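pasting Subtilisin-like protease SDD1 for the record, 97 residues
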Amino acid sequence: SGVTALIRSTYPNWSPAAIKSAMMTSADLYDRQGKVIQDGNKPAGLFAIGAGHVNPGKAINPGLVYNIQPVDYITYLCSLGFTRSDVLAITHKNVSC
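structre below
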């Protein structure tokens, strides 16, 4: 997308995870009139709104970026109680939790 290209041009060494994080952590939860984003005639819930409306200006200076690496997902799966064989089935990596 254009916002991804904008961020990549500003931070050429950022990983795809960092770029996604910049867009998500800087997204707006309000519309252009300053009102809560709606889902039909009610305020949008988390599943309807996601991270919010992308804000390109804020995304190039997000302040906070989560640069998650593949190994972090393995640690996360282990922390959720997945077994070694569960993690192997998902990641195709032999790990110990």
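The chain has two domains: 2-66, 69-97.
The first helix runs from residue 2 to 10.
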